[in-house]
Amino acid sequence: MIKCKVCGKWLKNIRGYNIHYNRMHGVIQGENISIPQIEELLNRMRKLELDNIFMKYQLKYKTIGNKSVEAIERIRQDNQRPERSANKNNMSNVVKDLKGIFNEDFNYHDILKPINPIEEPIIPSIMVEILV
């Protein structure tokens, strides 16, 4: 039985002692990265994050120096409101008129007549002349 000099643990043989000592108390071999290098990397990351936040702020509130941002504003408005054709304008006017009619006390029974399928359709006089 062998006793570990560092922690006092008893081990059965020399091989077990060597494995235990290397795993528990051995010097960890790794890259020697100095603390100033790590601090420099962290400072660069913080600076990039701040630059990113600053650029987002500038784009959001349009504070890009003293330059004019009318072109950006015009592009934004063009994307938000596409151009309307004459048909769409007429359609929107018709819809507005219909909404106004239906919002009032509108009774459709006054306008629509019931259809009686038994009655014969009325033939216009022009059609009668052509048939004769």
UniProtKB/TrEMBL annotation:
Q: Which InterPro entries is this protein grouped with?
A: Znf_C2H2_type
Q: What is this protein called?
A: C2H2-type domain-containing protein
Please report the stretch or stretches of sequence annotated as the C2H2-type domain: 4-25
Q: Which organism is it from?
A: marine sediment metagenome
